[in-house]
Design goal:
- There is one protein chain.
- The protein is mainly β.
- The protein has no helices and 24 strands.
Length: 355
């Protein structure tokens, strides 16, 4: 299918800093050494992960910036439901309506929590839990591998015995979606290896799964594709390794990388994807990347790709590291091949502006 053509251009925009390194950490007597956005709320506030050092120990917490003030959601002074102390944040889901699902390192081990809008902290799962589908305790959470809402949650994990699993909750109870014995629904990919990226919305769980061809002697896991699991349905393949890129100039352009799966409000699944020209597989060539959505009728929407002549670029595009497609303006973060970073927004007229 042909991708939708997008124009590009430039415009002036006024921006206000939300938070940056060097800003004081509330109640800690020190400053942030690193900050990363966790989500934006409906009234313009921003949730973020902030890192800082006290003495010789590094910590991180969850904070909310609203109306010029930084409020602590969870940090090293926070005590969990079992009396545990939270030391650092591993991963977060979306920040929605004042609540967020997140994983943290604590004095009782790695733990998955839900922070409610009223400030209540609920333990969802903890390192050492034995869940349905496995007799081995869970041991870790991936840094892009947790997600959830006010009712349910999903996460990828490794077990003590070396196995891996993907779980999604129903009624707040974690149930297995897939594990390392589940066959990848893609030819020549064997069983799933792990589930490093997860997004959960309205009962559905989108995920990136990795696999490995058992017949070619390879010991290197490949990103098998983007998949979605919906209650009562088999795992659905959204896009898979070596699939031709929709709208590309040749079938030689095929997906070889998948990142940041996201279920849209209307149920469609978006992701950032990578492809190479197999007729000229020179490893020194820059990667070609894009942001795509597959529609229910199996057609595709291509929002942006690395062949576009975006304003202000200093070098060729290497990859798209973030995107947001749920407001009147579409936002894209990208890195160039010289490690430069950019943020662009696209207007309703298809004009791209560098921020």
């Amino acid at each position: 299918m042909a991708a939708l053509a997008l124009s590009c251009g430039s415009a002036m925009a006024q921006f206000t800093s939300v938070v940056k390194t060097g800003v004081a950490v509330p109640g800690q007597g020190t400053n942030f050494t690193n900050v990363n956005i966790a989500g934006i709320d409906s009234v313009g506030g921003a949730a973020f992960i902030g890192s800082f050092t006290v003495g010789a120990t590094n910590y991180s917490g969850l904070y909310h910036k609203i109306n010029g003030n930084i409020l602590t959601l969870v940090d090293r002074n926070s005590v969990g439901p079992a009396g545990e102390t939270i030391n650092s944040i591993i991963a977060t889901g979306d920040y929605e309506n004042g609540g967020i699902v997140f994983a943290a390192n604590t004095t009782l081990g790695r733990t998955l929590y839900r922070y409610a809008p009223n400030g209540a902290l609920t333990k969802l799962q903890r390192e050492g839990d034995v869940l349905p589908g496995s007799t081995s305790p869970i041991s870790t959470f991936y840094n892009r591998g947790v997600s959830g809402d006010q009712n349910d949650f999903a996460f990828g994990t490794a077990h003590v015995d070396g196995g891996t699993s993907l779980y999604s909750s129903v009624g707040g109870i974690a149930l297995p979606v897939a594990d390392n014995k589940t066959r990848v629904p893609v030819a020549e990919m064997g069983d799933f290896i792990d589930f490093p990226e997860v997004n959960h919305r309205n009962g559905a769980t989108a995920f990136v799964g990795r696999g490995m061809d058992p017949d070619n002697g390879s010991t290197i896991a490949e990103t098998a594709g983007v998949f979605v699991a919906r209650p009562g349905n088999p795992i659905e393949t959204i896009s898979h390794f070596n699939e031709p890129i929709p709208g590309a100039v040749s079938d030689d352009f095929r997906f070889h990388e998948f990142e940041r799966p996201r279920i849209m409000p209307d149920g469609r699944v978006a992701f950032a994807g990578g492809f190479i020209n197999e007729s000229d597989p020179d490893p020194t060539l820059p990667r070609h990347m894009g942001v795509f959505i597959r529609n229910p009728d199996l057609t595709w929407k291509s929002y942006i790709d690395s062949n576009m002549n975006l304003p202000g670029l200093q070098a060729n595009i290497a990859e798209f590291n973030q995107f947001s497609l749920e407001t009147d303006y579409n936002y894209f973060g990208l890195d160039d091949i010289n490690h430069g970073s950019y943020i662009y927004y696209e207007s309703a007229d298809g004009v791209f502006t560098k921020l």
